[in-house]
Design brief:
5 domains, 9 helices, Neuraminidase, five-stranded mixed beta sheet, Immunoglobulin-like, 807 residues, mainly beta
């Protein structure tokens, strides 16, 4: 019989729609058979054409004959390139060989098509140094109501933890929980609400050790020495109150269990000796009340399971050879009787099974996708997509992947490299829309990874019937997505405006606002207000992604007849919150939103400055607002006098200063009572000098200060990208230590940052270095000691750059 074998693509390969895939293999006919008594014989059967189809019309492949010996079956190699169609999910690649006689021969290859473009790798930071974790390190993590907690077993058997929570000090905090753990043993944890949590792990002696947290950590032994397989798995669930249940693999391959109820632990065997792989994993879900389900790897590579509803019942989820004996298994509960389970197969594929009335299995990712020794994990939920699922694993080459289900189909993409193929990858949700993942690298270090965009969300609740949700997404390039859905459940309508504020712990925080109206159910019109805004990349936000995921949206809502100008009140609320959280620091807020931009363009927000909470905020380009301080109330500043303007031009700038009415000096100050200059949107550049603005010539240092700030005026006037320049000013105002640094003459002036450029001019004007914020930097500056010295090695920058507007 003719036959077809396919070399590429492999079964269950993940293909991206729009990509070009080559289908290749061998099509074999049948050999010539000589006539013999009772048999008529026949000529050789050749394959004339081969067609290939993938969710579309077939195309003809090119054929290349293979040289064979006489009386052997004639064969050809075939190859065809096709564009993967936008048909997501599980599909069949159909290859049909057409012989010169007889019926066609067919071959089907299952593939997975993802219509999403794989996102770029996740960014990461180091949580533990090289050598901290063993090769087969086990990790566990929980998302608490506020923040996240992660634990791992180190190479020396210590149990380490790190935790974080939203707020101004949202860095990871490290601590050591205990010692005596098995370096290759399992560890698991549950959140019990608030700051209550419990952790269990396998000890070096096969015991099951534990710790619970209620303000402080308390250690206890759950099961004595010899109770658990050293390399086996352990899992637990929280069922409400102080009720918990834990399962682990025994040293004889049994599945043991303990539950906590009524203030004490009680024990029972879930499965007898020889039921589980001693090196495999175990996973469980709570389905509410006393209903729960547990899955583990059997000693024959099967996937075994047990479910409890008044009593335990056992069943096999997958037969022998389905799962790698050293691989992981993970699960999620989706409500009702809906669950999903994933495990690693011996060939490195990732297999899934879901239950909706009955169990169905499917390939999530093809052979070689995962290391048979890795421990996988999963997460479920989201406010934007209710049934969103994520699964994480590591392949044999150390590439970490995430599978993502958006409610319609799966997409699989790499998110990192360098992981230990025998280690664990743990994913967790900081909030319903913000994932993070953790894994051990091959050098034994531990990384914390996060995606190239982070979404924060919060609920809207006002009056008797105003309800909804808002989302604010920040991306790696500083672009944003502002989205909301507000509904009225009352008979009468509402006018409303709302705003959100979020910290990034970098040079700029984020604010967004929206106003609208919703009709009551007894009125004409829509009772629903949905907005969806995309905003281009803003350089002020481009460095804020890492900290943004630790943040939270602070929401302020004005509605009904409480306020005349709802949007103005909502925007004021952003600055009121910012004023509190930025404390004594300079403070930078980026406002996004179509309505906010419209207000700034029309001047409804005063061009130049707005006052919120008694504090002036300077409105810059790109929605960048910087917080200022007053040295005297009631001052609107002033223009330079003709004499002052002429003095600055004659002494230094020689015509590069912009027109006298394009900038204004004020008594504002910035962080640490420092002068600063900032361009305002639709208004003048504000040169903020504090009390110096009353008398620019009070002292030599006052004059030098003025020259420094007027250099910034020149930079702004000659800027090709004012938004970028404003961001540079704001960033340096909040990170001042090295902003003024420059060295011996010979550098390229345009390579310096904005503050260093201005510092060169100020120091040349004085003839000696002026600032000592970073004392060693002073030693690298070689001025002559003569004011405005034409023979100074730095004079070249005055003539070749400052006076011709080249910054």
């Amino acid at each position: 019989m003719p036959s077809i074998s396919v070399n590429a693509p492999q079964a269950n390969s993940v293909l991206n729609s729009g990509d070009v895939v080559t289908v290749a293999g061998v099509a074999t006919g049948t050999p010539q058979v000589e006539p013999s008594p009772g048999h008529p014989g026949h000529d050789a059967v050749n394959i004339d054409t081969v067609t290939v189809a993938l969710a579309g019309p077939p195309i003809e492949a090119s054929l290349t004959p293979i040289k064979v010996q006489p009386h052997q079956a004639p064969a050809v190699t075939f190859a065809a390139s096709l564009i993967v169609p936008p048909a997501g999910g599980n599909q069949q690649l159909e290859i049909v060989g057409h012989p010169d006689s007889g019926a066609p021969v067919r071959k089907s290859v299952p593939v997975i098509i993802q219509t999403h473009i794989p996102p770029p790798p996740w960014a990461n930071s180091q949580l533990a140094p090289a050598g901290a974790l063993p090769g087969a390190a086990r990790l566990t993590a929980i998302a608490k109501p506020v923040g996240c907690e992660l634990w791992w077993i180190g190479t020396n058997g210590t149990v380490h933890g790190v935790w974080t929570e939203p707020g101004p000090n949202s860095a990871w905090a490290n601590y050591q929980l205990s010692g005596g753990a098995a370096p290759g043993g399992g560890i698991t944890a549950v959140s019990k609400g608030g700051d209550l949590m419990e952790v269990w792990w396998i000890g070096r002696d096969g015991s099951v050790q534990a710790a619970w947290h209620d303000g402080t950590w308390n250690l206890y032994t759950l099961a004595g020495p010899g109770s658990a397989a050293i390399g086996g798995g352990i899992t637990g669930i929280f069922k409400g109150g102080d009720v918990m249940e834990v399962w682990w693999i025994g040293p004889d391959g049994s599945v043991k269990a303990a539950y906590h109820e009524g203030g004490e632990w009680k024990y029972y065997p879930l499965a007898g000796a020889g039921s589980a792989s001693l090196t495999g994993s175990i996973t469980a879900v709570s389905k509410g009340g006393d209903v729960m389900e547990v899955w583990w790897i059997g000693p024959d590579g099967s996937v075994q399971a047990a479910w409890h509803e008044s009593e335990w019942k056992h069943y096999p989820l997958a037969g022998p050879g389905a799962a790698a004996l050293t691989g992981g298994i993970t699960s999620v509960f989706k409500g009702g009787d809906s669950m999903e389970v994933w495990w690693v197969a011996p060939d490195g594929s990732v297999i899934g099974a879901y239950h909706e009335g009955e169990w169905r299995t499917y390939p999530l990712s093809g052979p070689g996708s995962a290391s048979p020794k890795c421990r996988i994990t999963s997460a479920y939920g989201g406010s934007l997509v209710a049934n969103l699922m994520r699964v994480w694993w590591v392949d044999a080459a150390g590439t970490t992947s995430q599978a993502f289900f958006d409610g319609h189909q799966w997409s699989v993409s790499p998110i990192g490299v360098g992981a230990n193929p025998a280690g664990a990858t743990v994913g967790v949700l900081f909030n319903p829309d913000t994932p993070s993942a953790f894994w051990a690298l091959s050098d034994g270090s531990l990384v914390d990874a996060f995606p190239p965009e982070i979404t924060l969300s919060t609920c809207v609740s006002g009056g008797r019937g105003l309800r909804g949700t808002v989302w604010l997404t920040l991306r790696k390039d500083g672009s944003t997505h502002w989205h909301g859905d507000v509904t009225n459940h009352e008979a009468y309508g509402y006018n409303f405006a709302l705003s959100v504020f979020a910290r990034t712990n970098t040079s700029a925080d984020i604010g967004a606002a929206h106003s609208g109206s919703v009709a009551g159910w007894g009125e004409p019109g829509s009772s629903n207000d949905i907005w969806d805004e995309e905003h281009q990349a803003n350089p002020a936000l481009a460095t804020g992604l890492a900290a943004y995921r630790f943040s939270a949206l602070v929401l302020k809502l004005e509605h009904s007849v409480d306020v005349v100008d709802y949007l103005k009140a909502a925007i004021d609320a952003i600055f009121d919150v910012a004023r509190v959280v930025t404390l004594g620091k300079f403070g930078v807020v980026v406002l996004i939103g179509v309505e906010i931009g419209s207000l700034i363009n029309t001047g409804s927000l005063v061009p130049g400055t707005i006052i919120a909470g008694g504090i002036p905020w300077l409105a810059g380009p790109g929605g960048i607002f910087v917080r200022a301080l007053l040295t005297a109330t009631g001052s609107n500043g002033r223009h330079l006098t003709e004499a002052e303007y002429g003095w600055a031009n004659d002494m230094v700038f020689r015509g590069s200063l912009p027109p006298i009415d394009s900038f204004r000096i004020t008594n504002y100050l910035g962080w640490d009572n420092s002068p600063f200059t900032f361009p305002t949107f639709g208004g003048q550049t504000l040169v903020n000098l504090g009390s110096t603005f009353n008398n620019l010539h009070a002292s030599a240092s006052d004059e030098a200060l003025v020259i420094h700030e007027l250099t910034h005026v020149c930079q702004i006037a000659h800027s090709q990208n004012l938004q970028f320049t404003a961001n540079g000013i704001a960033t340096q105002l909040t990170n001042r230590k090295h902003a003024y640094d420059y060295g011996a003459a010979g550098f390229v002036y345009t390579d310096l940052n904005l503050e260093a450029q201005a510092e060169v001019v100020e120091d040349w004007f004085l003839g000696t270095p002026a600032k000592a914020i970073d004392p060693p930097a002073i030693d690298r500056r070689h001025h002559t000691g003569i004011k405005m010295d034409g023979n100074s090695p730095y004079y070249q920058y005055i003539t070749n750059n400052v006076r011709v507007g080249r910054f």
